[in-house]
Amino acid sequence: MNGPATGPLPLTLAELLQHGPLGGVTVYGPAERTTEVRAVRIADRLDALDGLQPHTAVVLTAGAATASWTLEMALRKAWEHAAACVVVARDTGRPESVAELADRLGVPLLVVAGDALDTAVRIASALARPEAGRTELIATAARRITAAGTHPVRVVSALHAVLPSTSVALTAPLGELVAGRTAALDERAGPVCVRVEVADPDGGPLAALTARSRSRVAGWDATVREVLGLAVAPLTAWAARERLAAERTGRRAAGLLAELVARAGSAPQGRAADSVTNERAADGASGASEAYDPLLAEAVALGWPVHGPFLLYAVRPAGPDEPGHDHGALLTAWWARGGPGGPLVSYAGCWVAWERPEETPGATAPEETPGAAPEGTPHAADPVAGAEKRLRAALAKPAPPLPVAGAVAGPAAGLAELGPALADAVAAVRVARSGDVVRADRMGPDRFLAALPREALRGPAEMLLAPLLHADRDGSLLRTLATLLDVGTPSAAAARLGVHRNTVTARLERIRSLGCDPDDPALRLALHLACRVLLGRTPPDKTPPDTAAGQP
């Protein structure tokens, strides 16, 4: 009896075993065969196997499987003719005695509980309607994925349960493994690769499901794609749930960021920036076991970039402190409407976010502003300039609900450099004024001096500069000393003040005669600090023109 498959997409043995008429049988030998099954042959004697066609399921009756040696002969003939498998009833012969041979030959021996002839009929029926078997597979997948809920590990496990000979991985947009098997990302693991994008709740890229299979059966990639598609909605719901939870408890997001920075910073020197994350996600060289990185999974669900380089943003309230008032909700809501980078997270007394440079649109250089990139500098060569421009635009429109100062830092090569780059951004934002943006790489000493606690240092500053202040009727000597200490030379100081160089030279001689020599190494730093404290927070490039140009 022959029952050739008439459908254009033959079933595989793995499909028959998992979801077809052979479900629940005992298998000796390779259990996940991707060999196509194109026909079924019932054999009541061994010589009936001499004309066997490849890809045939051989079903032995009780007469052909009376003893172990007959089963052994049947297996050898099946191997010689490239048969798909050999099927026997449990109560015939001693099938377990040839299990080792079946494994060595690579020919699956299937032991069924019922009548072998009934099994042959079921196999022939399935081969005649292969699409019915795939429909059952997809229906089973839908039931399992629904039962798995929205947890990524359970969803990926459900996919593994219904896709035979297939490895599945859930990855971040740039390929970091979040859950699943590393074999899915290895080209050597199989010729069939299917990738399905998973969108975040806002429609942007969240993650990707990648499946790799050893099966070469025509149409199997379409079946895998349809099954993976069933998992997209639960994974998007998972991201929405995680983001909602983060919005409700910003403290958890802040703790997650601190934990991520601490873990990345603990990587030994000399390793790649993101290798600590990748190594935790990988699970052995074979990639057969499932891996899960909960820290990375939470970060991906929150929309945080996890693969460098990064550009970093920091903002803080710049108005008067209001005891007991938490500005976090106002800042995060404003940032969500128009802030650059990812979600805003509380960190080290301010709020931070970061993004990848290539994820931001190109633009021309920003208008010349204090601390901005030089005119004409392309953002491709200076990505921090682009970040500065975007943050300035965010501070301008829509206007934040309270006075805000900002800073940018980076680029950070990867997670191992995220912590130091965040520290740079935090240090820069602490010296920024309301409505201003400071670049961490261009703060300069004047920014630090402008951040001094003026009231606490005013007394010592006035004592140090007492002779000069007593003689300085219009303040020109103090401005000249401060500007000279800022720019370094009399010529530059004259240009900054808008006076002749000889005027600066005459004032400098007068300043030295009052005991304030800017060239004295023991006094220079103290004089600089005292000038900044007494002149306030006006940066050097904002120093007003000198109205006493004609006075020495």
In short:
With about 550 residues, the protein is of the alpha+beta class. The chain has helices at about 15-20, 70-80, 100-105, 115-130, 130-150, 150-160, 220-230, 230-250, 250-265, 275-280, 295-300, 330-340, 385-395, 420-430, 445-450, 455-465, 465-470, 475-485, 490-495, 500-515, 520-535; strands at about 10, 25-30, 35, 40-45, 55-60, 85-90, 110, 165-170, 175-180, 190-200, 205-215, 290, 310-315, 345, 350-355, 405-410, 435-440. About 45% of the residues lie in helices and about 15% in strands.
Describe the structure.
It is built from 21 helices and 17 strands. Helix 5 (130-148) packs antiparallel against helix 6, helix 18 crosses helix 19 and helix 18 (476-487) packs across helix 20 (501-513). The radius of gyration is 37 Å and the shape is rod-shaped. Mean pLDDT is 79; it is low at 1-8, 280-286, 360-378 and 538-542. Strand 10 and strand 11 (205-213) form a beta hairpin. With 552 residues, it is α+β, with helices and mostly antiparallel strands. The strands form 4 sheets. It has a 5-stranded mixed beta sheet with strand order 2-7-6-5-4, sandwiched between helices. A 5-stranded antiparallel beta sheet has the order 10-11-8-9-12.
